[in-house]
Amino acid sequence: MLSATSGPRRRPKSPLRAAALLSVLALTGCTQVVPGSPEYAPSGSGGVLVREPCPDSEFECITIGVPADHFTPGSETWQVTFGLHRARVQSDGVLVIATGGPGSGGIAQADARLAGMRYTITDYYDVVFFDQRGIGQSEPFRCDDAFGVAVEEVDPSSTAGERDTFARATERFVEECFAEAGVDPADADLYSTRQAVEDLEAFRDWFDADQLILYGESYGTQFQQSYAAAHPERVEAMVLDGVVDLRTDLFHYGLEAAQAYSDVLAAVLTACDADLLCAVDAAGSAVEQYDRLAARLADGPVTYDHPLPDGSTEERDFTLDELHAAASGSVSEPAMRTMLQQALNAATNDNLVPLARLASAASGADPDTGAALPDPTFSDALYYAVQCADYDVVPEHSSGRLELDAWLDAAAAAGVGQQRLGDVAFGDLPCLFWPDGGAVPTRPEPMTAPPYPLLLLSADTDPNTPVRNAEQVFARTQDAALLVQLGGPHVIYDRGDSCVDGAVLGVVTAGRLPEPRRITCAGELSYTYQNNPPTTARGYSSPGETVFAVLGAVLGNPLYANWFGPGHMVIGCDEGGTARYLMSGDDTVQVWLDGCAWTDGVPVDGYISVPDGGTGYAGATLALPFAELSLEEDGTISGEFRGHPVG
């Protein structure tokens, strides 16, 4: 694989978004063709635009025609789609959400995100999500097959020959990506943020909104800052969540991200050591256990038995790259941080299955076959198309190969090789070999005295967009406000935290910044740790511990955590048997266990149901070799345990 191809700014992907976009792509329902400005009409439409309900959604999908190149007269027309949710009571303004990536489809996330917003926004503001040019319904740029082919990796200690090999392999990858996508390399600049923000301006013009309230998360902060720099008079207020500092170049951003990822991983491991239950499972220091496992894998992969959905197992190798993928893919969210702690602790007992599954989720691979599993809501090709078009990484009179040496040598001097997750620094190396279409990449100069209220949000444990970015923007911007959540995730708004959400609400609905202008909110580094299932049958020492060991294993499985339906999913259990998950029509998660074991010699048969999409109180009937137990939704446990009745 390309070294750290996910890049430092990608928000962790969610299959919930995948399911939503699949429905969006299968457009059905009534289509309304209405007159529109000819310059914004889709090619061949005779000067019209298309409005239609987004399937299974509260949003209306509006497709407009835009110039492929906003800065060259006579450019061909592209189609870009926006999702619009009208204010339920009356419209006091227009709130535009720019999602992360770059490369994510915003419309796929729209309904789930809207559900978390307060009624004071949804009742009185029009809400807009959009598929940025290059994803979803907006001129998609994808090369999933090219990304599924492995190429050489490279690191600061590589030889000149190894670097030459990497450069050639990356050049081939880029050529194959453009060929597969059917995109002319001469058009590479058309996917830049400076082009995409003009699509939003075209929508604003069509919608006849005098001003927009802008919210951006992760890469979306780069997008919204770029729009505001181009059209400051059209901005009513702006909230940036997980801030990208436009003054930081791509190489130094990678260095900062590598340090932040490594620091947050250290914090997660240290938190395990400080938690009694986690420390017991770790059988010592979690920090030392991680380093010991990394050192072991540095000598070569470790063989383990990987469970398959049919109940059989397959011998596989677990590698150091997979450990790094599992760790880097899990440190952005509290729930995933807890899951990482549990997986690392399982590895201390030679169970590498949970770590392997975390690695699969992080790399976008099928957990059963290992094959690349494209996410329809995210385009890796667009990630690079935007990043490489936005940053000037190969100066005039230089070359990608020369800059590769400069980047790797500077990274070595910065000590990246000594960091636990230092390879994050190299996520954007393909940009050294990406075509520029003849244009010189440019980024706008951010405003230091914006004529609108600006709220900056960050977490001090955000590895994707390190808090230093928000602090730098805050330090040079007049009359802005900075809110930092202690121990929080990457992107902190719309997670139910009143401290954060209240500050955002004040800016959106009243243009009011919080006082004082720099505040902190409490957060959670990780959620409550629950012990892994016992390693022996004797470890199931009581009915309650037995029931909750099974529930924890079933509902804390990395595959389940990254699946939200629809339909069903079957997985192999760590020590044999299977678990079948079904999301029913009433949003209840149902699980059937067939000889499912997490402890050798302790198969479990039974049924578990969890209402409210898996967030409600669970009920279960479980059969183990030494117990027959029932769990009611009120927490009551009954049945028989080791020959004795349970009341």
Count of DSSP-assigned helices: 20
> Residue-averaged pLDDT, rounded?
90
Q: Strand pairing plus helix content: what structural class?
A: alpha/beta
Oligomer: single chain
Q: Give the radius of gyration.
A: 25 Å
Strand order in the sheet with the most strands: 1-2-3-4-6-5-7-8-11-12-13
In short, what is this structure?
This protein has 647 residues and is an alpha/beta fold.
Which properties best describe this structure?
647 residues, alpha/beta, 34% helix, 11-stranded mixed β-sheet, 20 helices, single chain, 8-stranded antiparallel β-sheet
Please characterize this protein's 3D structure.
With 647 residues, the protein is an alpha/beta fold. The protein has a domain at 537-646. Helix content is 34%, strand content 19%. It has 20 helices and 21 strands. It has an 11-stranded mixed beta sheet, sandwiched between helices. Helix 17 links the parallel strand 12 and strand 13. Helix 11 packs across helix 13 (353-363). The radius of gyration is 25 Å and the shape is globular.
